[in-house]
Amino acid sequence: MYNDGVPKSTNYSRKYGHTKDSQLLISQPNIYSCSIPNTFHQELIHMPQLCAKSSSLKIRGRHLTVLQSAQGQNFFHFVKSNSYTDDIFTAWMAQQLKTDLLAETWQRKGHALPSNCSLPYHVYNIKAIKLYHRPYFSSYHDHSKWCVSTQGSKYRWTCIGDLNRDPRQAFRSGGFICTHNQEIYYAFHRLLVHYEPCD
After folding, report:
1. Residues 102 and 155 occupy one common structural domain
2. How does residue 92 score in pLDDT terms, banded at 50, 70 and 90?
3. Are 58 and 131 in the same domain?
4. What global pTM score does this model have?
5. Where does the pLDDT of residue 186 fall: very low under 50, low under 70, confident under 90, or very high at 90 and above?
């Protein structure tokens, strides 16, 4: 996956490249050390400001961009700042991807958001998964953060990220990268043992 250099294909479109600085602008990471050659300053216009930890940056609440692999496969990258406080799964990703989602995130007692069917596309919490040749385990013991479309969905998406379905995560920045690669979808979907229906 690239987004700093131009692929060597003739059908390349510049709209898919050089997006790292705009996505980082939203998530506002803690940058420890930074060095940007002058040749990149024109295309990565926000990086010098991010490196300088400038407080004058205008930060949007969320941003979706399309990244493209060298083979032309598209990936949707959802990123949010700490000012976007809706549930990223329910309010944004499921509606944007037009699919019901099964979400596997760390669900500590008293901190997990329930499955949500209030919008056109629903989000269900996975309660247990099973890895190959191993006993199943609950989401309480799993710190991974991913989701897949429900079986039978028109669009089969897999998303991997860094936010839990937890009310306190609403005040954190982060995001997910999503693909509709069928092999990745089936690899994750077959881990599912059961999920929580909506009340």
Report:
1. yes
2. very high
3. no
4. 0.81
5. very high
Domain that holds residue 174: 85-199
pLDDT of 27 higher than 60: yes
Return the pLDDT at 131: 86
| Average pLDDT value for residue range 109-121 | 91
Clarify whether residues 155 and 61 are in a common domain. no
Q: Domain check: are 78 and 94 in the same one? A: no
Judge contact between 66 and 2, C-beta under 8 A: no
